[in-house]
Design a protein that fits this description.
Distance between the termini: 83 Å
CATH architecture: Roll
Strand content: 35-45%
CATH class: Alpha Beta
CATH topology: Nuclear Transport Factor 2, Chain: A
Amino acid sequence: MKFLNLILLVLLLSWSWAVIQKKPLMHQEIHYSIQTELKTLIETSIKSQLPSAQNVQFTRFWTESLGNKKMKASFLYSFEDSAAEVTEQAQLSFEGYAILNRSTESSGDENVELWNLDELKIENNTIEYNNGVVITPGDDEI
């Protein structure tokens, strides 16, 4: 019985070592560069659509491999909209994800990988007003 336990322990240790030493599907540099490019793309899009937006902040942003040629980037970002009067400034928050696929086209540089943004989905959005509005019931009935 001791011999069987020893064999089982050795097999378990060798399996765990193989799992730890396994190469990732994509290098960390790819994840970092995609995150940076998507942040820049989202910020540029916000500022072009809503010039009064300021203080764009990414609360959460991470990428995960969905295979050798597919990646999912999930994010949560917020910004302040000061288009209205000072009393009505609001903080807008958005949560979503993007699906990217590795392009089959080659760039001029062999060191650069091309990725296509196939899907961009915003799932949750929140508006938080800096100063609340007081609502009082009127004398008129509906």
